[in-house]
Amino acid sequence: MTVSQIDEEVAKLLKLKAQIGGDEGKHQFTLKTAKGTRDYNPKQMAIRERVFNTIIRCFKRHGAETIDTPVFELKETLTGKYGEDSKLIYDLKDQGGELLSLRYDLTVPFARYLAMNKITNIKRYHIAKVYRRDNPAMTRGRYREFYQCDFDIAGQYDPMIPDAECLKIVHEILSELELGDFRIKVNDRRILDGMFAVCGVPDDKFRTICSTVDKLDKMSWEDVKSEMVNEKGLSEEAADQIGQYVSMQGGMDLAERLLQDAKMSQSKQACAGLTDMKQLFSYLQLFQVTDKVVFDLSLARGLDYYTGVIYEAILTQNCPVNVSATQNGVDEKAEEGVSVGSVAGGGRYDGLVGMFDPKGRKVPCVGVSIGIERVFSIMEQKAEASARKVRTTETQVMVASAQKNLLNERLRLTAELWNAGIKTEVMYKKNPKLLSQLQHCEDSGIPLVAILGEQELKDGVVKLRTVHSREEVDVSRAELAEEIKKRTSDV
Amino acid sequence: MTVSQIDEEVAKLLKLKAQIGGDEGKHQFTLKTAKGTRDYNPKQMAIRERVFNTIIRCFKRHGAETIDTPVFELKETLTGKYGEDSKLIYDLKDQGGELLSLRYDLTVPFARYLAMNKITNIKRYHIAKVYRRDNPAMTRGRYREFYQCDFDIAGQYDPMIPDAECLKIVHEILSELELGDFRIKVNDRRILDGMFAVCGVPDDKFRTICSTVDKLDKMSWEDVKSEMVNEKGLSEEAADQIGQYVSMQGGMDLAERLLQDAKMSQSKQACAGLTDMKQLFSYLQLFQVTDKVVFDLSLARGLDYYTGVIYEAILTQNCPVNVSATQNGVDEKAEEGVSVGSVAGGGRYDGLVGMFDPKGRKVPCVGVSIGIERVFSIMEQKAEASARKVRTTETQVMVASAQKNLLNERLRLTAELWNAGIKTEVMYKKNPKLLSQLQHCEDSGIPLVAILGEQELKDGVVKLRTVHSREEVDVSRAELAEEIKKRTSDV
């Protein structure tokens, strides 16, 4: 069957489906979100906001700008960028006009943006949702709509300086998010390719052998070797040689040793990669992050477009939080090309922008993607486990009253506080009970209550009550806003 | 064949297509974004961020939580909610599975969220992109992907208190954004319907006559009347009676007068609306916003789902900024149901959530939508017109050097500053020229340069240069971060 025959056949079937009523034949209304998607409730949003703030603060500290691109691109923009995974792209219906697809990641739209605007230098971050028609049933709850959180440096610079900054950023973000101890594995596509060459892997098997090596974080060496030899047809000798290399871990010392290695040193590619790896580690020393970074020859990463350094950060604490994160199916392995426990990954891709430029002009890029869905999931579980309630509002004070017929007075005071910049709530009831007003404060974590009564109005004061201690003190109305600011300055 | 058999067959065929290469045959390539969409560059993003911050600060001051919903919904969720405009909904391709559509606004997903989670009380904001297959050629550059910025209060409360808060919020946001003078028109769906009834409009013509009245902000009364009489078949007498009412504007006094009006007082609906209008104005007085709010009987607004108060804010200054905003086609008229110059709109919709509830349980809602694309456009033009450059980064200092071979020292100091929380940039070059380092600061608005040289290193100091004044002063390395913080505290 040819592609156009398939298209014809599919069109015929869909027409038939429409005729017999399609999904709309069932008139029973389904109250749900689309398969593989979810709403974020206010609590999840509060956590999400905190995580984003930490990450954006770090990106800005490093002088990054931000851009945004549309949620859909011309279908052809995405074509040929994701290999096998292209089948996971969401297409829009052909309603007469351009053929469109939802973005699959932020990297390809970024490369399209650079080429289209002829930008040759930029340090940018982009936080947005991407879409993949993964099978949630098969992958245990993986989302079809999820956030990516990317930082990239584009431009022709002296080697390894931007690459080192990306690793510094991963180090800063993971430290600040307090996710527990972590390690950042580093390798280089050129070292991998050179290694395959000197171990006797045929050129046309580099990719498939590389993707088998990528499984080493989940499978034993024996199983990986067996896949290489029995499924991929590699000689046992070559496999054993690879086995020796991929067990190696170290730092600058390992790069130096491998540069002297009788076999490795025969590959020009490997030597270029190893020389850059030495340089990278010297910058990482200056950035004081070598405690967490390890040069690991088993790190392969899936994506085709990497051309140089690659890296991946993993959480090393086997706390229950991690286990359940995996059970929740928030393992980003296939999505981000990162392993179980992995929370960030990236690398250098010097060829991608050139694929979009009409003249093939290259713009070297290096970037990192934070596995933000996994971070959310860990944060949510930490919040569940903690005694402290997650606040979903930032309200500082509730304007309340114990007596009847004071709605107007409550509204007047509320407006005064809003105008003074105080985050203020008031109940939308004529005569609410004091107890229900206090209960709302307890429930939503509002720390202060400004209570009005006939006496307070006469005296020109407000009774300011601290919710947790139940202390009450009269504050003159003129000083109320300042007093509230003072008492909630730590919120 | 049944629907599920078709789905199966389609899935099989698509899998086959993916295996044999799919659409990847065509090689000719178009470098553009999808029709009606655009990228946001860093400058636009900086402006967008400032506008969002102002608006979110206001929403939070009023105690609002935030939620998020997926970018696509089941097609049936959107069906029957938008009348004629349903043809503008983007459908996703049937790739075997649920039929999906991109969201058309944030209100319907909000109602779906409330019904699905059985939420009866919430004050929430939601800022996100929505999608409409409008014809950009016909509407001069209207976007097919654009932001909505919604604030809604759901729940059964005493009348008009949440409604008044929505108007207070519009007042606060428009004041803080400094868009020039504005007015907020208010009316009530019940007053409109009552007015139509007492003027002798047949029941089945309420909607179509209402949509003609809605054109009064763009057309003269003569033209509107002619449309009513000649196109919609209304009697001239009825049209003239409507004409008398829709020319009325006022405040609480007008509501009182109309309650005494011989004709109006015959309509129960109108009286209910007018009584609430009086109540609304009494709350608006407490909130001190009556200077900008006007009860205007010509305000109709398009959307079907409104059941009570409706409102719309317009900018009243005829500054060039407004004119060009309209020329840019950012007139949100059809999109938001608001008029030229309109920057916010909303109203009460007590029936929408019930459409999603299996038992039809109602959750009364009132909300407001800020016409954020128009605000962006005005802000962008203000920025263009102003001498002050829009900064796209927040970098406080650039670590630079005048001498060669100091890359390592620059990187070391940069890391020190990052670790101290200072937003710092450094050039990714071994030996950049001092001039090009200073030029970068000029270009991107970085206020300070920390210059390292052999002498400074020996003395344990850094030369701190203020870019605009070119003043230089030696600062001890230990005090550098503090000094930078002090000097950039106003940034």
Write structural notes for this entry.
Two copies of one chain form a homodimer. Chain A is α+β, with helices and mostly antiparallel strands. Chain A folds into two domains: 344 residues, Bira Bifunctional Protein, Domain 2 (BirA Bifunctional Protein, domain 2, 2-Layer Sandwich); 91 residues, Rossmann fold (3-Layer(aba) Sandwich), CATH 3.40.50.800. The first copy, chain A, is 42% helix and 17% strand. The first copy, chain A, contains 19 helices and 16 strands. Chain A has a nine-stranded mixed β-sheet with strand order 1-4-5-11-10-9-6-8-7. A five-stranded mixed β-sheet of chain A has the order 13-12-14-15-16, with helices on both faces. A two-stranded antiparallel sheet of chain A has the order 2-3. In chain A, strand 12, helix 16 and strand 13 form a beta-alpha-beta unit. The first copy, chain A, is elongated, with a radius of gyration of 29 Å. About 5% of the residues of chain A have low confidence. Chains A and B meet through helix 1, helix 2, strand 1, strand 2 and helix 4 of A and helix 1, helix 2, strand 1, strand 2 and helix 4 of B.
Topology:
The structure is a homodimer of 491-residue chains.
Chain A: H1 3-19, H2 42-61, E1 65-66, E2 72-74, H3 75-78, E3 100-102, H4 107-116, E4 122-131, E5 145-154, H5 161-177, E6 182-188, H6 189-198, H7 206-213, H8 221-231, H9 236-246, E7 249-250, H10 252-260, H11 268-286, E8 293-296, E9 309-315, H12 320-327, H13 333-336, E10 342-348, H14 352-356, E11 365-370, H15 372-385, E12 397-401, H16 407-419, E13 424-426, H17 434-444, E14 448-452, H18 454-459, E15 461-466, E16 472-476, H19 480-487
Parallel strand pairs in A: 1-4, 6-8, 12-13, 12-14
Antiparallel strand pairs in A: 2-3, 4-5, 5-11, 6-9, 7-8, 9-10, 10-11, 14-15, 15-16
Helix pairs in contact in A: 2-5, 2-15, 5-11, 6-11, 8-9, 10-11
GO cellular component, one term (chains A, B): cytosol
Domain Aminoacyl-transfer RNA synthetases class-II family profile (chains A, B): 7-379
Organism (chains A, B): Oncorhynchus tshawytscha
